[in-house]
Amino acid sequence: MKLTLILMTIGIFVCGQTQTDNKIREKIEGNFLGNGKKIIATAVKTKEAKGNPIEDGTPAVYEIRFSDKKLKPIKVGCCEIILINEGDLNQDGSDEISIYQAPTNGCTYAMETYSNINGHWKTIVDRFLIPTGCEVISKDDLQKRIFREKNQIFYLEKDMREGNGKLIKKKVERK
């Protein structure tokens, strides 16, 4: 029992999330079809890793699956992911989903946002890198990375030209 509590505490600390948080985790819910019905999105490992990919091993493979089979899975490849319900960023009536994804090796994560458009998942915020310095990013910081302001979608990216890597606001170009 003691070991279980320790492992649960470590899992919460490492992922920067609690079991009651439903906006950011490996399983989230949202109105992904735009019909008001809550659907669960789950990060699923579809292929186990075999060795270190940097040393000719094979990386694990992930995809996002949905509780409503009308939604096709999102294939996201390697590696571990955290899902973020962004709400309705593009004002089409359905929630968008961001994927915060671990690197194959190292401390620079990636983030990308998808919208279900005409039954297909389309990228609405292209993949951008989030250097972490191997530190955990809080769930609040992840939730603030992509946002809507004055009918426009923005994301926050670290300015690596500066020593402190302050966050700069970048406008998402419409596709």
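^ that was protein a. below is b, sequence first then the tokens
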Amino acid sequence: MRVGYFQFDVVRGDPDANVSIIEAALNGARADLIVLPELCTTGYLFESADALAEFAEPLDGQTVARLSSLASSTETTLVFGVAERDGDELFNTAVIATPDGAVRSQRKRHLTRLEQPLFSVGGQVTTHQVPEATIGAVMCFDAWFPERSRILTQGGVQILCCPSNFGGPESLDVFKVRALENRVFVIVANRIGHEQLASVEATFRGDSRVITPDGTVLIPAGDGQALGLIDIDLGETAKKASVMSNNLEAEWSGYQIVECPPRLGI
């Protein structure tokens, strides 16, 4: 199976420009699955939910339709992050667009302090069967909470797709741990560039990558625009059965919380 990512400098507040960048980069690319960054159509920093709502769209809007059309024309499953408008609520959402025209979604649950004023909290995780594999979307900070990835793996997921927007190096370690503990492939698509809004600024490091079930990092992207593609063997995920319980409730029931002793004066 040929998988990969596309990382680029997202233009804040210009979905049309961002989709055009994606179309130009992926036109002619040969792959089964490509992951794009979180919020790759709108940018990240906004003054308020009202300001973001100007650029957010429902899942049947023009932006998702264009990227769904791209998935069909390139015969590639695309996983990409959008600001989804659903009634009066906004969600930080990963869209899964398959070559047959189907559009599915996964809303982010764990929001950072910069996202909490903008988005509503997403719901339960869902597995998605695409032509070549079973995948799940774990968006950036969601990966810091191991239960989400483990639940997806229990559901048969072979590849965790991680649309992301992060600057520090810690997330790279988190993604590697998720691959190792679940014995799945992880595709990280992180954006590049810089955004500033009043006193708040964010710099995005890139460093997109594919991580194997044994923690090996494949095709690390660096800090420039990059389309990375590589062939993987999904048979490597079969080893996960030997490291996981089939019953999480039973596995965790043996643990208990005990009162910790007071800290010493050190």
